[in-house]
Amino acid sequence: MTSLKGKVALVAGGTRGAGRGIAMELGAAGATVYVTGRTTRNQLSEYVRKETIEETADLVNELGGTGIAVQVDHLIPDQVQSLIEKIEREQGRLDILVNDIWGGENLIEWDIPVWEHSLEKGMRMLRLAIDTHIITSHYALPLLIKNKGGLVVEVTDGTEEYNKNRYRVSLFYDLAKSSVIRMAKALAHELSPYDCTAVAVSPGWMRSEIMLEVFGVTEENWKDAAEKEPHFVISETPRYIGRAISAIAKDPDKKRLNGESFSSGELAKMYHFHDLDGSQPEAFRYLAEVQEAGKPANAEGYR
């Protein structure tokens, strides 16, 4: 394995959650990381949350990388085109594209059939999950394919194996997350002649800023959330998926993964890395074998 010093990454959707964890780990490996999102220190997005792209860039810098924050709405083609022109002008290359744009948590109506689900919210969810990724790839990939060994990561929820026989929350959410997995397969085909790789990667039950707030805990006392949800014992930090993607990016033989989908836990076993606490959570195996099987919460053997 080699470090990522000299490599240029774009983490599209890096304000918080998985995107922030990914940007931090790419930075820790020495990469120059462009962090995009809509929330800055001067302007809030529809989330109305405190996390900003500048904070993420600062965290990249603290870990030894170079973090560059750029405000971008990835639904606006002109903004994405300008972003890529900026990266080419400043760096002359792009080695890693992480499509992590999402922003749909507040639009989900859980277990509601399509005829009752808000059509406006559902269609907005699809635009945020799918259109943003396509627009970003359209403008970014001509720069990425100029050099061999480029990597595209489509961040989603659930692996292809886990999602294929399960209903994921609602038709809209199901379609959004499954489409991203399929997108990685299509990109793998289109990138293959250029010796570049595309994969889909999913975190497990991630302790994002939003999730910690839902359970009224912090990263320091997250285990207290078991009082509300015992199965939270399988949760992982956003840095875990970051380490997964960093490991793929460092792999000189990553082309063998082209078109496949993985969880952070699966990649931890493959590349022998751990979460911040030294564990290796395997969330989707746990969900299938413990939670969905109706067994009591117990992460022994799953982390």
Mean pLDDT: 96
N-to-C SSE series?
Answer: EHEHEHEHEHHEHHEHH
Alpha-carbon distance between the termini? Answer: 24 Å
Per the CATH scheme, the topology name is Rossmann fold
Q: How many helices does DSSP assign?
A: 10
CATH homologous superfamily descriptor: NAD(P)-binding Rossmann-like Domain
**CATH hierarchy class name:** Alpha Beta
Structural class category: alpha/beta
Strand order in space, largest sheet: 3-2-1-4-5-6-7
Q: State the share of residues found in helices, binned by percent.
A: 40-55%
Shape: globular
Oligomer kind: single chain
Q: Uncertain spans, ≥5 residues at pLDDT below 50?
A: none
- Tally of extended strands? 7
Count of domains: 1
Largest sheet, described in full?
A: 7 strands, parallel
| C-alpha-based Rg, rounded | 18 Å
Under the CATH scheme, the architecture is 3-Layer(aba) Sandwich
Q: What proportion strand?
A: 5-15%
